[in-house]
Amino acid sequence: MAIKEEQHKPTSDIYILGIESSCDDTSASVIKNGVLLSNVTAGQAVHERYGGVVPELASRAHQQNIIPVVHEAMREAGIAKSDLSAVAFTRGPGLLGSLLVGASFAKGFAQSLNLPLIDVNHLQAHVLAHFISQGKPDEQMPEFPFLCLLVSGGNSQIILVRSYHDMEIIGQTIDDAAGEAFDKCAKVMGLPYPGGPHVDRLAQSGNPSAFRFAKPQIKDYNYSFSGLKTSFLYLLRDKVKENPDFIAENKADLCASLQETVVDILMKKLKLAAKDLNVRQVAVAGGVSANSGLRKALVETGKKYGWKVFIPPVSFTTDNAAMIAITGYFKYLNHDFCGLGEVPYARINYTF
């Protein structure tokens, strides 16, 4: 009887509920006609003591968080379940256990309300976060085609974006991602998890030229960060032998030099791709796009080469459901739905 009372009612407005659960953040968001109404996220502090995300603990926390997070997102949006037009969820890539929680909830929720279901590629959603409207009159969004540098803990890619539904990965890391390099180098310095923000903070007072680290020579637009990590580790090993207090005495300079190296590696390939493809609309996305050094480099490079640069608000750089909802909105307009039989995938799906 309760299910019948919540049956979907046709409306001229399009309300998309987005659900994100790819890693350790449980998030829900509601978007109306492309405009953000709510974006609620519950983090998981339990992983800090382990220095990284523990998949089993992450999936258990998602089970605890998902119902209250969705409830709060609906409450903040000021709508009833019967107002929803569709439910969008992160299908992958990500931690399989975490993805299963979000996907299972989305399927059950959509089926109970007789709503269309939309599966979303997590990486595509990061790119389309640039099209989330907050209803402000001065909002600017990229024009097609544009290049997007997607950098996070698990991915470092250069993507040529031709439309909401047509994206091509033209360059990517062949081993570790930029965010992973930040986190692992931070860990060996004894910094808390996640290490990236701590590196950024300490780098503000450090000398970026104090130390030199290895920079890879990779063909085309691809990246590599494993050599940088090894170079960083070896420097610490040798210096600590000479001075046991080396890390504590040089932490700010180490962070500044590390950040400078990572940003330089990222920008070198991005500049090459923009030149070769003659693209002057350039965006950045993903968790590492919150890094102040990278943001500064993008702005300065944009001025030098005449790029129009798009940098998302920090709240849209990390994993969030707003980017899932906006991607779901564009897929809804394209009548791109999925069935209940679609299963999550842990590995990167390179087909957008």
UniProtKB/TrEMBL annotation:
GO biological process: tRNA threonylcarbamoyladenosine modification
Iron in keyword set: yes
Domain Gcp-like per the UniProt entry, residue ranges: 36-325
The protein's enzyme class: transferase
Organism, scientific name: bioreactor metagenome
Alphabetic keyword roster: Acyltransferase, Cytoplasm, Iron, Metal-binding, Transferase, tRNA processing
E.C. code: 2.3.1.234
GO molecular function: metal ion binding; tRNA N(6)-L-threonylcarbamoyladenine synthase activity
Stored HAMAP family: TsaD
Tagged with keyword Lyase: no
Protein name: N(6)-L-threonylcarbamoyladenine synthase
Catalytic activity from the UniProt record: L-threonylcarbamoyladenylate + adenosine(37) in tRNA = N(6)-L-threonylcarbamoyladenosine(37) in tRNA + AMP + H(+)
Pfam family, one: TsaD
